[in-house]
Design a protein that fits this description.
The protein is of the alpha+beta class and 380 residues long. The chain has 10 helices and 22 strands.
């Protein structure tokens, strides 16, 4: 567990937080200038002006009342800033070896760890490449691999996708999820993009002007209109993990959102059984209270309403899909809520067009998506 009781004077306000981060991935969410990077720099020890207490597990890294300050190199934190900051005079292999801890270097163990991490992030074919020849997405994966090769106790990622364009961000996001799932390593993940937090974090802490304004499960916290308004594009998106079925010819492919819960999405490359992320804007989800017929939409999913939340002039309706499926949020008007009697416990059918969702899968040059040139219509 990471425990923070920290105060840090910044230019326009004081960062003052009390946080207990006990989950595998804790997201730090908030607008630019909220103090997110400063908080991470206090955790890593790069900000000497921080006062208060920082504990990680049974170690105290900062306790100003007892004059304790553990220097950054002794905290064993793997830190990836926004730009990655690779060593330009080294090839990829050299950068990864530079990440190996100096305190106990063992070439055989270091090479085995490098091979494991390189395969995990699919950069094993790049090991002998100069970093100057890498694409932006490749460079960021190398930066992630170097941090993991340092064998840290805590991985800290400061908006690692912020410097990439949107297609690259969506391609690399599944690699980050793979790191989360396959490494026994707690992660602090900073982002101002809700999709990234929803895809990766198990808990989210929301910062605004140096203060914690919300904390809890990402879907619930980010469904709060006051919190979601802090995002650059304040529209709610569902992000669901899915298992890919066999590739198909043509324009679509079936994935499983849960065992026995098929869902048709745009075509994307990848083997059967591989994991992908499906983004479904809440605007693209229609709700019906009777089984719909004669639709062009490819996905009709039975479910039950769990909650209806206000979202400005609209409503967010959280639907638990059945059998045993995840939660899917639809955006509807107050009139629709009244006319359909949408309330907790109401049985409904969620309707999603195949072209209304996007698929994130690793290693592709472009993400699979529906007709991006058509603006999504608001549900009625």
């Amino acid at each position: 567990m990471l425990h923070l009781e920290v105060r840090l004077e910044l230019t326009s306000f004081a960062l003052e937080v009390s946080i207990d981060a006990a989950r595998r991935v804790t997201g730090i969410f908030g607008p630019s200038g909220a103090g997110k990077t400063s908080l991470l720099e206090a955790v890593t020890g790069l900000r000497r002006g921080a006062r208060g207490t920082i504990r990680f597990g049974d170690e105290t890294w900062l306790a100003t009342d007892r004059a304790i300050f553990v220097p950054p190199e002794e905290r064993r934190v793997g830190y990836v800033p926004q730009e990655g900051l690779l060593f330009p005079h080294l090839d990829v292999r050299g950068n990864l070896r530079a990440g190996a801890p100096r305190r106990a270097r063992r070439p055989e163990r270091d090479d085995a760890e490098m091979a494991r991490v390189s395969a995990l992030l699919e950069i094993d074919a790049l090991l002998d490449r100069p970093v100057a020849t890498l694409s932006a997405g490749q460079r960021q994966r190398v930066a992630l691999a170097r941090a993991v090769c340092s064998r840290p106790r805590l991985l800290v990622l400061d908006e690692p996708l912020a410097s990439l364009d949107l297609p690259l961000r969506r391609r690399i996001l599944p690699f980050l999820r793979r790191l989360r799932d396959e490494l026994d390593l707690p992660i602090l993940y900073v982002s101002h993009e809700p999709v990234e937090i929803l895809a990766l974090a198990e808990e989210v802490v929301v910062l605004r002007e140096g203060r914690v304004v919300a904390q809890g499960p990402p879907a619930r916290v980010l469904g709060d209109p006051d919190v979601f308004a802090l995002a650059p594009d304040p529209e709610y998106d569902n992000v669901l993990a899915a298992r890919a079925g066999a590739p198909e010819d043509g324009e679509g492919r079936v994935v499983e959102l849960a065992p026995g819960l098929p869902f048709r999405v745009p075509a994307f490359p990848g083997d059967a059984g591989s994991t992908a992320l499906v983004e479904i804007p809440a605007q693209q989800v229609l709700l019906a209270v009777e089984p719909p017929r004669g639709l062009s939409a490819q996905n009709v999913l039975a479910g039950v309403v769990r909650e209806v939340r206000p979202a400005g002039p609209l409503r967010l309706v959280a639907v638990e899909l059945r059998p045993g499926g995840p939660e899917l949020v639809a955006e509807v008007t107050p009139r629709a809520c009244v006319e359909l009697d949408l309330r907790a416990g109401r049985e409904v059918f969620a309707i999603v067009k195949q072209t209304g969702c996007r698929v994130y899968a690793p290693g592709r040059e472009q993400m699979a998506q529906g007709a991006a040139s058509i603006a999504p219509a608001r549900s009625s």
